[in-house]
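Re-running the complex after MR caught last week's input typo. The corrected sequence lines follow. Everything else is unchanged.
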Amino acid sequence: MASSTLPPRRVADARWFAHYVLHNRLPMLIAVGAGIVGGIADAMQPFLIGVIVDHITRGLSMEQITADIGTLIVFSVITLVAFYGQRYFSGLVAYKTHHEMRNDIFENMLTLDQRFYNRFPTGDLIARLHGDLQYVWRMLAISVNRSGSALAGLAFTFVLLATIDLTLTVIVFIVLAVSTAFQMVAGLAITPLSEKVQDQQGVLAALVQDSASGIQTLKSFGRERDAAAAFHAQNVKLRKTWLYFKRRYEPVGMLPQAIAQTAAGVVVVVGGYQTLTGQMTLGNFTQFLLYLTFISKSLLEIGMIYQRTMQTRGALKRVTPLLQEAEIADAPDAVAMPHVRGDVEFRGVTYQVGDKTLLKDIHLKIPAGQTVGLVGATGCGKTTLVNLLARVMDVTSGEVRIDGVDVRRIRLDDLRRAVTYVPQNTFLFSRALHENIRMGKPNISDADVEAAVRISRLSNDLPQLPDGLNTLVGEKGVMLSGGQKQRVAIARALVRDPAILVLDDALSSVDTRTAADILGDLKHVLRSRTSLIIAHRVATVKDADWIVVMDEGRIVEQGTHAELVARGGLYAHMVERELLTDDPLPAEPTGD
Amino acid sequence: MTATIAAQGELKAKINDRRVAGLLWRFLRPYRGQVIAVFGLLLLISAMNLAMPYLIQVAIDGPIAEGDLNGLYLIGLAYVGLIVAIFVVRFVQLYWLHTIGQSALVNLRQTLYEHILRQDLAFFNRTPVGKIVSRISTDVEELSELVSTSFVMVVSNLITLAGIIVVMFLLNWRLALIGLAVIPVILWASLYFRGGVRHYSQLWYRALSDFQAYINEQFNGMLVVQLFNRQPVSREEYGEISRAIYNAVIGLRNAYTNYALILQGLTTIGLALLLWGGGQGVLAQWATLGMLVASIEYLRRSFEPILQLAEQFTQIQTAFSAAERIAQLLEEQPTITEPTHPVRVDDFTPTVRFEGVTFRYEDDEQPVIREITFAVEAGQRVAIVGATGAGKTSLVKLLARYFDVTAGRILVSGVDLRALSFADLRRFVSVVPQNPYIFNGTIADNLRLFDPSITEAQMRAACETACAQSFIDRLPGGYDYPLLPQGANLSEGQRQLLALARALIHSPQSILVLDEATSSIDTETEADIQRGLAQALHGRTSIIIAHRLSTIRDADRIIVMQHGRIVEDGTHETLLERDGLYAQLYHRQFAEV
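Corrected-run output:
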């Protein structure tokens, strides 16, 4: 649903909020209008009952009383219709506004880069998009629904009662308004206490999560009893925090009712005295009694609207970061590059995070169609280098070029179509296997999928999977072993037939024999495209056209396998070490 | 979507009321006397609340009608007294109830937690951690809501409603009959609309949980979404789920609006009937004005409890399904249990014997271990090698009694594992897994594993032996260095060293079973691991699933496994000489580079 036509605002403030609400202004106006009519009509009810009581006291005929009741019913019908419209349209405003916000925010989040996603834990992002945004409809539902009717009803009641007895009216209103204000303030003051309860609930949940995940360790050392004791300490603390909160919360919740009842007591005594002395009719007395409930209910609603507004303001502050502008986005003068040859060039590329330099002055030219292996110790900058090519992040200085064009000037869609990058950590969606391979590209034929499945040796495993390519892989692919997941990722990359293929340690969990088979087949595929292969094992890259050895953010050696071994440098050392220390046997998948 | 399917499954599960009642009774029983007292107080509060309109009636028909000012003040005083009394009693009642409720819930949570810890590994393999967490947090909180709010509301509303009906009849039975005529219709309407409300609120809950699951996945996989231009698909999927929430909540709104409309209409009809009938009554003198006003007040008060009862139904329904899930979890029984009369082991000797052991996982047809027999002498270091799926890890799992053998038996110190108490079993055998789990907290927390009696000296000694001390010293704060979830701020090698030290602390005499790491380890820690292992294993009985050449060379004995059987058994030299599977595997490695 495309809801917004204005340029998006980047701060979830009152204006941002107003933009969405005003988008639904028609139903809002109807709701508030209906509320005003309904509020007044509803406020008529106690008045009419009082009139009837007076008519009965004066012994008027049953015809008159029946007519009075007729009037009562007419007003009730008006109230009914008005309230129906009020509820209907206020709900529409509240839920539609929330819906539109939710959609626009996600739309923006689809464009945000990894810098953003690394800064916020996933749980926190969910809490913001799901939890914090809920305040919007909670607030709108009640304020659009009740503000019109509560204010109109109160004003009407005040005028009506003031004409009967000004002093009593003022007393009643003051008592009730003060109690409402008290509840509002106290309610907000208590919020931090309820947050403490939630925090403690979180501590408990984390403990359970932790011990269930590490159960094997706990059992292996027989630590269950002490774990239970640790849990008990937090468990008891939760009770303490909860009770502390409730013992302050309950009186705050109960006091306004007690005050309202006190106001009723005042009315009984004062009003009773005036009725007794003939200053007030019995009907008026009844009206006062009946209006008490009405007034305190309306005041309570206004108090609630105030509270919700405050809460929403706080919650929206937490939504603001989700609206930020993507740092990695299409430049205004972005060029379309539907077809890419595949020349890659790094020109004086430096990348820094804070004061840490991860890549320093990298120069590397890869002609189209070449296969380049990237090796080096953990943390030497291999992954950073390919991240810059796929624009997962942008260079600090220097340039990365594809076919001579700076990647920052290529349309992002085109860039990502040209470069298929299989990151180190395989991510699978909880959908069918073939959907994880196609990734929503409908123009990939079944034959292409089959070919990719064959090359990635996924075909070996298909017979063991319950539904072959239709198997649901489960959350994050839990149904599959680490090696299977990596091979799905490779198949996913192959079907896209990219000009430039980047594999970041994409075979690490695949057993050596299968990995060798895959690499053998890949050779044919790679002949026609540029590819960068990052690997920990020399065996994976030794057949590449060109091997680049990195160390601490720099290129320290490059050449063919034979050249580098002959040179006796870092690469040659790696080869030796692999001979001595690498697995003599195929690795065992962790899921065994 | 899998989340939807799971949610549907949970919705369809019919609530077994007896089971839920049994659960509640089990945890509230210790407080039954107090519970009864609390409900006594509730009764008192309702009665006092009901007395208030009655006082007004007395005031109108008595002092006001008769012009008795003192009488009026007396009634006023009684009125204010009632307000104070209600306030005090209600606070006491809530205070008491919350204390009972929370104590019961503390017990429930503790029981659940300990129950979960007692389950065997098979349970943890088939139950996602998220599910366990939500049983003990979300579901227990639902029950907390039920015990602390819903029960009180329902009971006090029922009492109030019943009280109003009784008082109205006592006041004037004819007025009562007229006024209360709409109540059955209101009750019927509440029940009728409850269905729609429940339907949509379930749809809504389901949509919300789908939504959370979906954004969780998308946020985690955003890099892949963007790299593969999957945004259009994600947008469409998200739109669908977002739309489902909207539709459900709009449906819910409609159901509520209709219900509120009917309710409001009916209450007005009730009032109109009462006024009309009451007017006639006063004129015909079978009712007084005070009675009429009091009846109006009572009737208006009776609508509130009905409305609240209707609202509570949904809440109670949710709480009951939570209770049902908790009860189900509590019914789970581990298949691996401690013997009732464990064999006492007075002089433990670290020996292991597998006698014709065969093992098959529950659902599998093929055994992964087939009739394995071998013995490990005290002090021996045995390396087990073999290809993926040869059964090495399963062998370890059997030795730790995470699973029980299908046939044959395993003896430790000459005693069948199944005859040992759990305490002895853990004392005799400890496993350091390939990917050691790192708990939330500090390095020290991970070494102590909830045992506060472990001193820093003990930790230091173990870390020295395991060669973990040097990297710990380099961390800011040393033992108090806070670890990220899954130990993400340690390298894989460091995590292994930590796990090794942990084993040395908690199982100083045990037979050590190690599953070595396979993947790339930084050169620095690699040397540490070699040394640490050598020191830790010195003079100990150990069984190592070996991946490193050095481990294999240093072993007293190498067992080669294939397809769940032992195919070769000997030293490195004898096996090479034999030129069998081991020699073949060994040479292939060198040919590869």
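None of the earlier attempt is carried over here. Chain A touches chain B through 149 residues (CB under 8 Å). Residues 166-279 of chain A form one domain.
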